[in-house]
Amino acid sequence: MAEQILALPLLILAAGKSRRFGSEDKRFTALPHGGELINALVRRGRKAGLDVYVVLDPADDVSARIDAPCVFAPNAGVGMGASIADAVGIFAERSEAEALLIMPADLPLLRVESLRRVAEPATAQRIVIPTFDAKGGHPIAFGREYWPALSKLSGDEGGRSVIASARSEFVDVIELNDEGICLDADTPEQMSALLLKLRPVLR
Fold first, then answer.
1. H helices within 48-202, ranges in order?
2. Which of 14, 110, 146, 178 shows its CA 20 to 30 Å from the CA of 41?
3. Collapsing DSSP states into helix, strand and coil, what is residue 55?
């Protein structure tokens, strides 16, 4: 199945530093089995057969530390929605992919298989949302039909408004056995608690 999804971009949103994380940069959190969080997510995306990019704020250029091509979102300081809008606008011009996946950079338990499961049913007309125990998670796949709406986002609204405006028959909700799709970390304490669950198989 991987051969069918090689062209799909995965955008990892890493344009903001969490204020609640204090002076630490959670994107570069050291993992118990080696490496840093953002680069571990890059590796998992590639293992899933995706074309991985990391979205950054040009005012906070840490691209030299990231093992993937980086996309710069000029309006990242306005909020996550603006970061998505900038990045998707760039891909609308330079990519012929039918869909792309979007996820935040603070999901240390996310599994490679979950990335594959979201990518496999993605088409130009569909939105694919993973859930765990009926709770929505990431990544979310947006078909190309929804890219114009994504490129108009602003502030911190994210993609919820785009999902809400889509016809229900074109939104696929898939239940996954992976709590990592919805376990993010806003503080060092939360991140430490999640890393206690990390296993080598996730690398």
1. 80-94, 112-119, 147-150, 160-165, 188-195
2. 146
3. strand
Task: Give dist(CA 20, CA 168) in Å, integer.
Answer: 35
**What is the number of other CB atoms lying within 10 angstroms of the CB of residue 136?**
14
- Among residues 33, 64, 66, 32, which one has the least CA distance to residue 52? 66
Q: What is the DSSP letter of 30?
A: B
With 0.85 as the threshold, say if the pTM is over it.
yes
Residue 70's identity, in one-letter code, is: C
Nearest to 60 by CA among 17, 116, 91: 17
Nearest Cα to 127, choosing from 170, 81, 182? 170
Six-digit token string for 81: 């929605």
Sequence-distant (6+) residues with CB within 8 A of 23 are none
d(CA 72, CA 156): 17
pLDDT in tens, 127-146: 999 999 999 999 999 999 99
Alpha-carbon Rg of the chain, whole angstroms?
16
The pLDDT tens digits of the residues spanning 160-194 come to 999 999 999 999 999 999 999 999 988 889 899 99
Of 117, 138, 127, 134, the residue nearest 163 (C-alpha): 127
Spatial contact of 75 and 151, defined as CB atoms under 8 Å apart = no
